[in-house]
Amino acid sequence: MIRQEEKSEKMVRAPTDMLCEYSSNPLGIDAAAPRFSWALNHTERGQLQSAYEILVASAQANLDADNGDTWASGKVISTQSVNICYSGATLESGKTYYWKVRAWDKDEKVSPWSKMAMFEMGLMKPGDWKAKWIKGGNLIRKGFSINKAIKRARAYICGLGYYELRINGEKAGDHVLDPGWTDYEKRVLYETYDVTGYLAGGENSVGAMLGNGRYCPPEDKVKISPLPLKSYGDSPLLVLQIDIEFTDGTNMRVATDETWKASRGPIVSDDIWDGETYDARLERPGWDVPHFDDSDWSSAVLADAPGGKLVSQAGVPPIKVVKKLQPRSISNPRPNVYIYDFEQNFAGWVRLHVHGPKGTKVQLRFAELLDESGMLNTIPNRGARATDTYILKGQDLETYEPRFTYHGFRYVEVKGFPGTPNLGSLVGCVVHSAVEPTGSFVCSNSLVNQIHKNVIWGQLSNLMSVPTDCPQRDERMGWMGDAQLTAEEAIHNFGMAGFYTKYIMDIGDSQKEDGSVPDVVPTYWSLYPADPAWGTACIVLPWNLYLYYEDKQILKHNYSVMKRWVGFLGSKAADYIVSYGKHGDWCPPRHALSVDTGLRLTSTWYYYHDAFLLSKIAGILDEREDAEKYAQLSEKIKEAFNREFFLGDRYCSEKLSDLHKRVEALLPPTASEDMQKEMIKGTLPLRGPSIQTANVLALCLDIAPRDKKEQVARTLFDDIVTTQSTHINTGIVGTKYLFDVLTKFGRADLAYKLVTQTTYPSWAYMIQEGATTLWERWEYLADGGMNSHNHIMYGTVDAWFYRALVGIKLDPADPGFKAIIIKPYPVGDLRFASASLRTVRGTVSSSWARDEKTLSLEVTLPVNSQAKVSIPKMGLNKVTVKESGMVIWEKGSYAEGAVGVTGGSEEEDYVTFDIGSGSYSFQLSETIEV
Ligand code: BGC
After folding, report:
1. Number of C-alpha atoms within 13 angstroms, CB side, residue 477?
2. 47 and 98 in contact (C-beta within 8 Å)?
3. Residue ranges of E strands in 536-681
4. Quick check: 444 and 434 in contact, CB under 8 A?
5. 525 to each of 231, 254, 399, 469, 884, how far by Cα in Å?
6. Separation of 800 CA from ligand 1 center, angstroms?
7. Is CB count within 10 Å lower at the N or C end of the chain?
């Protein structure tokens, strides 16, 4: 049989998806040696890159002439196509560079050159900044004139807490709530805009509106927030520099200084948690267009710099209004009170359309819940007033949306509306860090699909330049436990490299001399030291960027942070047991606090986890002594963990000696030793706490002694099935690892039963109770405690949907999806499952469908990747496997011939094939004996 592709000529195509520092054509890069990545394309299966060549030029014409005047890498024999470091001439601030790449395939055939891509450097040295920090009002402006033809213009800007840049009557760019949040005393982010098209010959006007943000929260918030809140200054600040290049080769610079003018504007108050008040009567019409008379404005005042290093935001996904939602219904529970229901919980705000007399005050309040009378229940918002107020100027139709706040809500209460509002009076604006959707998942079970959907909404609601815990109440903090646990789920669904790279810098910024990091990063609340399950983020996040994006540099740059953190844990350990902890297996059923799983157990487990990962990281970085040192340390911790928490057939977080003492006290003093042993054995399971998380943790990193693992696993299954009637009894830590552990020990079916469990505690229970995101607690709660209805902590299960239900897993031995494991688990009532992941190398997808006796599996791998594809035998005795119609497995042996398939083998439940890049269509069926 001749395949389609064999007829046509085998062709290595031009590389595509060209990224510089994870971005396409970025501006404002400030890495001295930016990294390049591309995807490879080939018409033939089983293809690899054997070499590449990169050209970087200072002008397009040079690149067109194949003149890499800045860097010509030459032909580099290498399979690396991800994160290749620039190593040419020194890159200059503000300059644009052009690059292209070509690649050789495994047969030494060279591809055409890629299309041209570009990157532009930011202001790399402090001396490049000529602008001064200024303050004086929440409107700041300057008029200036241009009398030459503009070739290009760039604006470099940072306004703290937030800015909106306005040039000649227009908002520049589409970011909101910019710049990203950092600890402003350590690091301040600036953005680079191409403003060439905003400027014109003659008079120009540039200005910024400024908001408080995290920089200067109102005094009362600083005091009455649940904890003392960090405040950096007493009023917003601005630094802005516009560098203009004219066609005649000359330059002009417009930069903030004391000649700028400042005034108060229509934003009367603004705060992230409380909302914004906008009095349209106080607008300064024309303030942002040329020829505005600002003679009655005061002069801007020079301000102290916030203290942190000015760093480019390039590569960090900016916060944007990503989507608009129409409200689904309006109710009118009391006179003049209208409740809008968006039927979706989300983070953002609403745009209001209103017409009415000047001075009319329209009040918008936001909440996730309603009370029994159909009014808003704002109690779970706790100290966040979540109220936007708009005061009309009295014109035809007025449109308002806030700039410097956001809310987490499903319902909006409108009061004071002139007349009767209708569905068109409000539009929902969905706001979050604009991470690119890179993953998709769907399967035949609608409940699982709904859980996935809730995870997506929950995840996006909690990406606000830092990974937040929730969007609605008086927190919205970068709780690192939530962040580290959900990182894999987030990475499966979205392009997270830039987002986490920035957050990892934030974590580094927060580290103290003693190696401790806080629970919340950036440290708007100073909570040192972090619970080990929170602090581990400083290791888990770089590690995940390495695994999923083949980013070795992030390991290197954060190596000392990780070492110091592990050193800190060591300083807290006695006999390798870490006794301190704060949250542990947070929010198990019925509780916020971890009741069944003691903090000593989770803290010690994370000490092991971190030392173990650090030894691997040291190995990857060629730090051999460290690799050995941390491997030995992790062995010691493992021994201590087993000594302390292992009871023979199970793990229990109560200190073994305490438990024995407690049980011994219950024994009749006259009992013989044997009888005591017998009674201890019989008593412990009854009196010991529920053991799901303890056992999951011991099984997941191979802590349990080899010969005891199966027994521990059986104890775990028994706890789930018998003690908890097939329910989870885990908090956020146990839940993260539970599903992979069950799968590893042969019980993917049980994992699926837990996922699809419909009674409390379960995801289905939340959904039945109306959840459109995920809750913080397994329970429906509507009081003022720990009961956000939009937390992402339980979203970790979503990674298991990709990894097990569809069965796409990366192989850590060859990160960045270079080596892939495709192994679906067609469990329970599942008839099909399908997912695709846009990885750093290109798209990986897998999709299976089955009936009683056949299973089809479609797989696509990018060039330069390879996979082991395991096709489930579905309990069939003798199976035949075909690929695109050609038999590749029959009568227990592999049949060669399919292009790209290089081998096959059979295990008890699967037939496994080695494949290279390309698209494949496998069909497994029962062998019909004739
Ligand atoms: C947050 C959590 C966080 C926890 C730590 C809560 O208030 O909302 O998500 O991780 O505190 O205990």
Report:
1. 21
2. no
3. 573-574, 577-578
4. no
5. 10, 37, 36, 13, 58
6. 23
7. C
Report the atom number in ligand 1 closest to the C-alpha of 519: 5
Pocket test of ligand 1: the residue of 381, 461, 469, 470 to mutate, having most ligand atoms within 8 Å of its CB, is 469
Catalytic residue among 21, 191, 475, 644: 475
* Percent of the chain residues past pLDDT 90, beyond the cut: 90
Average of pLDDT values for 787-806? 97
Residue 311 has pLDDT above 60, yes or no: yes
Smallest CA separation from ligand 1 atom 9, residue: 469
The ligand 1 atom at the shortest distance from the C-alpha of residue 582 is 12
Closest by alpha carbon to 404, among 428, 393, 385, 388? 388
Average pLDDT, the chain: 95
Beta pairing, strands 134-135 & 301-302: antiparallel
* pTM for this predicted structure: 0.96
pLDDT digits (tens, 9 = 90+) for 25-82: 999 999 999 999 999 999 999 999 999 999 999 999 999 999 999 999 999 999 999 9
Q: pLDDT tens digits for 201-210?
A: 999 999 999 9
> SS3 of 278, please?
strand
Would you call 276 a catalytic residue per the annotation?
A: no
pLDDT in tens, 218-268: 887 787 777 889 999 999 999 999 999 999 999 999 999 999 999 999 999
The whole-number average pLDDT for the span 276-289 is 97
Spatial separation of the C-alpha atoms in residues 679 and 687, rounded to whole Å: 12
**Cα(469) to centroid(ligand 1), Å:** 7
Q: Three-state SS across 316-365? A: CCCEEEEEEECCCEEEEEECCEEEEEEEEEEEEEEEEEECCCCCCEEEEE
State which amino acid sits at residue 893.
S
CA of 314 to the centre of ligand 1 (A): 30
| Residue ID of nearest Cα to ligand 1 atom 11 | 479
CA distance 761 to 754: 9
Closest CA to 705 of 649, 655, 632, 657: 649
* Burial class (CB within 10 angstroms; exposed 0-12, middle 13-18, buried 19+) of 641: buried
> What is the DSSP annotation of 549-567?
H--HHHHHHTHHHHHHHHH
For residue 261, list its beta bridge partners.
141, 299
Residue 26: Cβ within 10 Å count: 22
Pick the atom of ligand 1 nearest to 788's CA.
Answer: 8
* 759-766 contact pairs (CB < 8 A, 24+): 759/727, 760/589, 760/727, 761/589, 761/727, 761/728, 761/729, 762/727, 762/728, 763/447, 763/451, 763/454, 763/794, 763/797, 764/447, 764/451, 766/454
Given the residues 53, 120, 276, 776, the one annotated as active site: 776
What dihedral do alpha carbons 99, 105, 110, 114 form, nearest 10°? -30
From 598, 593, 543, select the one nearest 565 (Cα to Cα): 543
pLDDT band at residue 163 under the 50/70/90 scheme: very high
84 CA distance to ligand 1 centroid (A)? 38
Name the residue at shortest CA distance from atom 1 of ligand 1.
469
Q: What is the pLDDT of residue 598?
A: 87
**pLDDT for res 647:** 87
Active site residue 475: yes
User: 309 - beta bridge partners?
Assistant: 187
How far is ligand 1, taken at its centre, from the CA of residue 167, in Å? 41
Q: Which residues line ligand 1 (CB under 6 A)?
A: 469-470, 475, 479, 481-482, 583, 586, 791
Question: Within 13 Å and on the Cβ side, how many CA atoms surround 905?
Answer: 3
Looking at the DSSP bridge assignments, the partners of residue 160 are 237
